[in-house]
Amino acid sequence: MQDVDLRVQLPYFLIRLAALVVITVVLAVVGVNLLLSVLIGFAVAGLLTWPLGRMQRRAAQRAAAARGAAGPPPPGAGKGKGGSA
User: Which residues contact 20 (CB under 8 A, 6 or more apart)?
Assistant: First the structure.
């Protein structure tokens, strides 16, 4: 399994989530049943943001490859004494 950096994927995820929320709210305001508007929102947002999902996957793969090229972190990296790490 490939180790991915979720921080790299966060902007793409938030954009896709925003698309789902906007579509769902618009359908609910128009008068569509809430459950049906959520289901339709998932389908439409998934189709509309399909290219964005591919970019998200590629960005995560590039970040993992760059981190792999830099080598593994030394033992104890990121662990500090008394500080916020």
Answer: 41, 42, 45
